[in-house]
Specification:
Layout (H helix, E strand, L loop, with lengths): L2 E5 L5 H4 L7 E4 L7 E4 L15 E4 L9 H6 L3 E3 L6 H16 L2 H9 L5 H11 L12 E5 L3 H12 L3 E5 L5 H6 L5 E2 L3 H5 L4 E4 L13 H5 L6 E4 L8 H9 L5 E4 L12 E3 L8 H21 L19 E8 L4 H11 L4 E9 L2 E8 L5 H8 L4 E6 L1
Parallel strand pairs: 1-2, 1-3, 3-4, 4-5, 6-7, 6-9, 7-8, 9-10, 10-11, 11-12
Antiparallel strand pairs: 13-15, 13-16, 14-15
């Protein structure tokens, strides 16, 4: 039987092509899908189908997905970290240039000029003095969050001759290897805030990052500083930014998250959530998440899940069992007991956990039938079980 994948947004064809039509059906109208692929669709008020095994977000953030609810149901949620990193990096660099060279104000001024060419030329020469900016080399960029995007932003800024200070207490080994050795490490956000000419956030919106740039921190910044937010709405305290701009204590605020509060305000450059809006980024995200969903549905392997542990196991037999359960004692023992009682022998097994979720892949000597699956699902604490 073909696996059914429900799309809640338009997904790049390059990604969908990774799901072979001889074994997958893809549609925007399935009522009982095995998997869901989406971009920005908000799932919080959506009724979750009983058939659902996995959700793939063709992007990095998962604020539009009720991850806790999915975990309770044993549903694996994937994202595509780093697939849109170059697109966001380029937009951050573009945002710095827009702000430091006053390009939006200058464009608006020029666009409103009228008269003959001679009159326009005279107005240009008279008006350009109002839009004198500053250059990037020698300026200091602070980067909060050194994941795939933050590292690219930091390295690009260094290549432009900027000084860069980075802060990320949870930086991964992979990110550390990729980060330029010339990036200075900060011990905290407050450690860097007074030194920077630009500050850019690349962190998820969680309680610890809500309003990470707030009134107190803005007060410590240079009056010529620029705040760039291409991460998430809520990372920056917008009201405090507007107060600082009105008081001349901040040069500009460049954000990808416009609102009625920010619209048309002096010093604000608000863009319509363009961070990952390139054909290349959309393709990269779709390809990455499609391949992750495919490997999970077919082999039970987990890459880039936001709620399940990372698990990869080469097949030892043709008969595989995947079990998701609450991370409590004696689950593996109880699962093994059910298998033994049904005369099933374990050839190879991997068990990993992450916070409250445990995940077990087991290769068996023969197929686990519905009776076995029902028996495992009947164990208290088991959230999902399936034969592959």
């Amino acid at each position: 039987m073909k696996k059914k994948v429900l799309t809640l947004n338009n997904i790049s064809a390059q990604g969908l092509e990774r799901l072979p039509r001889d074994s997958y059906e893809v549609s925007s109208e399935f009522s009982q899908p095995d998997a869901i692929m989406l971009r920005s669709f908000k799932m919080h008020d959506m009724e979750i189908p009983a058939s659902l095994i996995a959700v793939g977000r063709a992007g990095a953030g998962v604020n539009n997905i009720p991850v806790d609810k999915m975990s309770e149901r044993g549903i694996c949620v994937f994202n595509a970290p780093g697939a849109n990193a170059n697109a966001v990096k380029e937009l951050v660099i573009g945002g710095m240039l827009l702000a430091c060279r006053n390009l939006c104000l200058a464009w608006d001024y020029t666009n409103k000029l009228s008269g003959s060419d001679a009159e326009i030329s005279k107005a240009v020469e008279e008006g350009k003095k109002k839009y004198v900016g500053f250059e990037l080399p020698g300026r200091t960029l602070g980067v909060i969050g050194l994941g795939a995007i933050g590292v690219k932003v930091a390295n690009a800024a260094r290549s432009l001759g900027m000084n860069v200070i980075g802060y990320d207490p949870g930086i991964s080994v992979k990110s550390a290897w990729n980060l330029s050795a010339e990036v200075k490490a900060a011990n905290s956000v407050d450690d860097m805030i007074g030194e920077v000419d630009f500050i850019s956030m690349h962190v998820p919106l969680i309680p610890a990052t809500k309003n990470i740039i707030n009134r107190e921190r803005i007060a410590k910044m240079k009056k010529t500083a620029v705040i760039l937010n291409f991460a998430r709405d809520g990372i920056v305290e917008d009201e405090a930014v507007l107060e600082a701009l009105d008081a001349g204590r901040l040069h500009a605020y460049v954000t990808d998250f416009p609102s009625s509060l920010l619209k048309g305000k002096h010093g604000v450059i608000a863009l319509p959530h363009l961070g990952a809006s390139t054909h290349e980024a959309e393709e990269n995200c779709a390809v990455m998440v499609a391949e992750q969903l495919k490997d999970y549905l077919e082999n039970g392997n987990i890459t880039n899940s936001v709620n399940f542990p990372e698990v990869h196991m080469a097949r030892a037999t043709d008969y595989r069992l995947a079990v998701v359960n609450a991370n409590v004692p004696d689950m593996v023992g109880q699962i093994s007991h059910v298998l033994g009682a049904n005369d099933l022998n374990i050839h190879h097994m991997v068990n990993e956990s992450r916070n409250g979720i445990a995940y077990t892949l087991i290769d068996l000597d023969k197929q686990a039938d519905e009776q076995v699956i029902s028996g495992i699902k009947g164990i208290k604490g088991v959230l999902a079980a399936r034969a592959l």
